[in-house]
Amino acid sequence: MRCFTVLGPSQTGKSTIVEKLGSLEGTPRKSSSPYGLNLTEFTFTNEAWCALDAPGPNEALAHVQHALLASDACILCVSPAPEEAVLAAPYLRIIEASQTPCILFVNRMDEPRGRLRDVIAALQDYANHSLLLRQVPIREGDRIVGSCDLISERAWRYREGQTSALIAIPESTAEREHEARTELLEHLSEFDDWLLEELIEDREPASDALYAISSRVLRENRIIPVLIGSASHGNGMMRLMKALRHEAPPVAALRQRLARASAVEEGRLTAVSFHAYHRQNIGKTVLVRALGEGLRQGVSLGGSGLGAVQDPANGRSNSAIAPAPGDVFATVKSDHLPVPSLLTSDAPVAPPEWTEPPTPMLERILVPGSERDENKLSETLAKLSETDRGLVVLQEEGTGAQLVRAQGPVHLRDLCRTLSDVFHIDVTDRTPSPIYRETIAKPSEVHYRHRKQTGGAGQFADVKLSIRPNERGRGFTFSETVKGGVVPRNYIPAVEAGAREAMEKGPLGFGVIDVGVTLFDGQHHAVDSSEHAFRTASKMGVRQALSEGSAVLMQPIFRSEIHIPSVYSGNLVQIVSALKGQVLGFDRDETAKGWDIFRALVPGSALDDLARTLRSATQGIGYFSKAFDHFEELYGKEADAIVRAHETQRVEH
User: Fold this and answer.
1) Distance between CA atoms of residues 7 and 450, nearest Å
2) Alpha carbon distance, N-terminus to C-terminus of the chain
3) CATH number of the domain where residue 616 is located
4) Nearest in space to 154 (alpha carbons), one of 182, 133, 132, 174
5) Is 645 part of a structural domain of the chain?
6) How many separate domains does the chain show?
7) Could you tell me if 297 and 345 lie in one domain?
8) Cβ–Cβ contacts within 10 Å for residue 222, how many?
9) Which of 69, 102, 496, 581 is deepest in the core (most CB within 10 A)?
10) Do 301 and 279 share a structural domain?
11) Could you tell me if 422 and 448 lie in one domain?
């Protein structure tokens, strides 16, 4: 079986392409997962094929990456509008990183919205590989009625519901065809000395030789050929499928590519797991592609026995099934298989770095509908994060509530639907509160005596403390300058412990940072003093001093790396400034052509707005990662509102 992925932006006709390719010679067999990855098995010229129809939203890029991990080649489906080329930028980035041989298909050519050469030029801004036209359209007025193959120099006229008719190259197309063919041959000659010599000698190379060269350079991932058509009318589908059949590499090439990318011995590589999902009453289903011989139910794969092998289209198990190299199959009761991963018989191997999904930008607290679901929710989210690497599961600081980081609102909605439909856990979501802190603006001194008399021994401790602001980022410090044993040495650690406890909550209701405490005097009692008494005196004394130290609210500031296509870079300074952030600088992204990386400092309270604004300004393409940098003072009405809201929330809970 040979396997390819069809990927590209939403609304470009990917599913229609898969449907038409699968129906060229018979009826295809289909299956789908809750994550939007559709699998179609079909036969073409007596060969078995599997098409992976990858989800289109940018929030599902992780599943697109995983599909490429199991694919011999891919078809990138794009719009015929030059201004929409930027929407393909994330997919070209993944294709380049994965080194997957790719055919670019410009779909919906029956809806011309610009010149084809402008579409290719716009896409070339995001591709290191040369995009080479293999066909040019035949036009009648504003309508595209056929195409001309640049290698065979044969022309076809589209016929609705029928195979295209072979025609002579129209005079109106001949000049453009000659120009495009010359450009194609010049590019191909860069990879073949024989062809270069033929062109220098002004000899016309044979079509068969040119097809062989184009097949080789695609298998070697040297260029990205460009084909055209309209899947909804069936136009260009046969030519696209023939290109895949003759030019896509075999599964052995995928095995070599994965072994090289992950530094694993090729002979040990048996399979690759590339997708997983949970089904009600069945559990975790893992999709696997065989890369070697000997796979069957019960054999060791990934360090444990392979569970029941199923037909991915109908879910039927058959212990006699022995997947051959290249076959795609489903397996249950194989929870030990991580997804995605490269699989040897004795252990899973981490997938290549390029499969790492974009950093999730949307943070939400999930609140279960009933108390009995609280523990179940935690366990279920852990399961789902194993099958969806675009999802990160954490706990909210302070409350321990379930915090999830999702790729965006669509991803979050799908997560909540899976929780409800598969695991019967209904949840609501809310925005987590930024983690604020407080400090003091001026030093103060306090004298605090703790005295308590009970039926037995009493409690006595007397401390004199000075409290001062520390420089930003230094945190809490403690020192002592007592003399003459007024506070015995064995009680000083208790004084420090009490001061630390006081830092847990300041007068504004938040944790206290960047404060120094010094014990400079005190008294003790030979009978009634104890560690507990001195810890209590220190804690109460520091609390009193903090209330006299002009408390200041501190907001978290995050260092963000924002990744966007260069065409959107002009708007980013304004976006960050509007969120009271600071742009630190930007560079070209050396790993992705046509992309920039901006570095900025952004308040924690603005990160949600940054994610929303960035999605809107970049048509869902831009994304950012973040790391805590420092705390910064916050004054005025904004600070007062945060303190009041925090106090209200505390009272309600």
Assistant:
1) 71
2) 59
3) 3.30.70.240
4) 174
5) no
6) 5
7) yes
8) 17
9) 102
10) yes
11) no
**444-452 and 459-469: which strand pairing?**
antiparallel
The proportion of the chain whose per-residue pLDDT surpasses 70, expressed as a percent, equals 99
Residues 509 and 627 in one domain: no
Pairing of strands 130-133, 102-106: unpaired
Give the pairing of strands 155-159 and 300-301: unpaired
Task: State the DSSP string of 467-504.
Answer: EEEPPTT---EEEE---TTSS-GGGHHHHHHHHHHHTT
pLDDT, tens digit, 9 for 90 and up, residues 438-464: 999 999 999 999 998 766 678 899 999
**In terms of domains, do 53 and 192 share one?**
yes
- Same domain assignment for residues 20 and 84: yes
Say whether both 327 and 368 belong to one domain.
no
* Amino acid identity for residue 343 in this structure: L
Residues in contact with 627: Cβ distance below 8 Å, sequence separation at least 6, in sequence order? 558, 559
Contact 74, 58 (CB under 8 A): no
Phi and psi, residue 176, nearest 5°? -65, -40
**Tens-digit pLDDT profile for residues 284-336:** 899 999 999 989 899 999 999 999 998 887 777 777 778 999 999 999 999 89
Question: CB 424: neighbour CB atoms within 10 A?
Answer: 11
**Domain residues for 327?**
269-355
CA–CA dist 416, 414 (Å, integer):
5
Which CATH number is 426's domain given?
A: 3.30.70.870
Structure token pair of residue 94? 């993944």
How far apart CA 606 and CA 577 sit, in angstroms, is: 11
Burial state string for 342-356 with b = 16 or more CB within 10 A and e = fewer than 16:
bbbbeebbebbebbe
Q: Is residue 407 part of a domain?
A: yes
The 348-349 sheet, strands edge to edge: 308-310, 328-332, 283-290, 271-279, 341-343, 348-349
The reply to whether 649 falls in a domain is no
We report the CATH number of the domain holding residue 60 as 3.40.50.300
DSSP 8-state symbol, 456: S
- CA dist 414 and 35 (Å) reads 8
Looking at the structure, do residues 114 and 186 belong to the same domain, yes or no?
yes
